[in-house]
Fold:
Amino acid sequence: MNFLEILYFLVPVAIAYAAPLILTAIGGVFSERSGVVNIGLEGLMVVGAFIGVLFNLTFADTFGAATPWMALLAAMVVAALFSLLHAVASVTFRADQVVSGVAINLLAVALCLFLVKMIYGKGQTDFVQERFLRDGIPFLEKIPFFGPMFFQNVYWTSVLAIGIAILAWVILYYTPFGLRLRAVGEHPMAADTMGINVSRMRYFAVMISGGLAGIGGAIYSQSISQDFGHATINGQGFMALAAMIFGKWHPLGAMGAALFFGIAQALSIVGGSLPGIEKVPSVFLLILPYVLTILALAGFIGKANAPKASGVPYIKGKR
Amino acid sequence: MSNRIINILVPVISVILGLIVGAIVMVVSGYDPIEGYAALWNGIFGDVYTIGETIRQITPYILAGLAVAFAFRTGLFNIGVEGQLIVGWFAAAYVGITFEELPKYIHLPLAILAAAAAGALWGFIPGLLKARFKVHEVIVTIMMNYIALHTSNALVRAVSDGGDNTGAIHPTASLRSEFLENMTDFSRLHYGILIALAMVLVMWLILEKTTRGFELKAVGLNQHASEYAGMNVNKNIILAMSISGAFAGLAGAMEALGTFEFASVKGGFTGIGFDGIAVALLGANTPLGVIFGAALFGSLKYGATNMPNAAGIPEEIVSIIIAIIIFFVASGYIIRLFIERLSKKKEAK
Structure:
């Protein structure tokens, strides 16, 4: 296997694994940019993954091949509603946002497993019938060199993820809404003085993060795991959180970091069949994303600054 | 109403609200909440065997709760208890299977110390990064959890030549107690509960009776003031995370030397570390409070295992209740507001 063949083999897997991370990390960017720390991304992905599979299993006969896409929508809506719990606790009730996020994670896993056992009478669901399939992108796949690497054998969901990342960048940096959202996360009092409703912006941002994490989870469960059980989402949400920090709270940075983590995950999965990497014990590839994040945070990639008001509840009239 | 009473009322009200929400969830999903809670009660207090098992379950919860609470008191949030517990678990099991023919009074303390040291190391790293590079400990400890999980799995495989279980530890390293077993109809209750209670005392002594403990609390209350008072904030942060990690490592030792007597490859987290956050929150981060928090959540967790058989209700309902309780405790502000309004009305009358 020469180097190019390795790339053709590895890159599509990496991109496939990166898609859920990209979407969830972008969700995290929205939430934290508005000043709400969202440790609950993992739980929101769990909800998305569960709703995706549930919808898929229930409506596969009705919608046919379009089912996975409809399931994404359903997962987005339900996860956004679920994230309202986090918004209410951390914005209105002034709860510690990290603790509330932990509660979201616990609640999501418990609730989804409870429902799985109630509905299916066993610990995990059946495999979905209609799932996302790999496909070539017309025209682009014919490009020499890049075509086989990036545009053959890809999931359309990966295209969606990258599209949303670019859209998020435009929204956050080139629209009034984005400016307000960032202002609320940097200096809520100043934003409030300028007539921006701080609480409302934060509610929006948390719900966007919920929706995106929901889509991310549903993509994962309908293309990679293809069923839902207690270990379906096992750390992807936290990895997305890491990607967000690694990408310095910027949508495109987060996307880049998620793609990088995708490569790390792909290496740990298919690495055993690659020359040169097969000798590296898989544990090193498994812990690579986490070690890299810690190193990145320790300042080896330059100082990353969180939004100033991130994690601080805004209390009107308090200096 | 005095602040002290409100501080006790908030967790009590949260627990009651959590149980009410749990009942509502059961009703909505078509289960009988009375039957469910009866099964839960019997799962906790049914007979001496279940009581023994419940206390066994409470043991690691006490230590995990202490770990979270100790870090909290120094103004640090240790989400890494789970990872510190896992490395402690492996370290204790490793010492337990490796050394042969050591007398018990050396082997057992050695295994326990190994667990504490491994946990302390896993806490030391985030502490150091926080002190040296101002890296937020929440993110680092989350990452350390996954590193711990994968590393311990790889180590178990390495120790067992590719298997997924280290095999049983030597009896000289075991916490098993014939006396407690006989008393509780052969449950897996072990001497670990005594260690856990001793650690509660240790935490109280450190925090309330030593200069170092005073400094740790001062750093937690106001870093800048402590710095101006001449305390070494960085050193205290590292120390607090290491001690917190050591408590967590001990929780792992309880599983390795008492309950299971081996370490195995784990598909996911044990959950004890995360529940430790709930325990500490409910116990208001005090040593005594942690005992109550651990008793409640440990019993709920163990009692839940009786619910599928006795009432046909998935045991996850208890995890839902615990999550809801954390929500309410975290949102203490709103409960306080409610209590204050209520007591003001009474005074007005």
Remarks:
- Chain A is about 70% helix and 0% strand.
- The domain at 18-127+157-300 of chain A is CATH 1.10.3470 (ABC transporter involved in vitamin B12 uptake, BtuC).
- Chain A has one domain: 18-127+157-300.
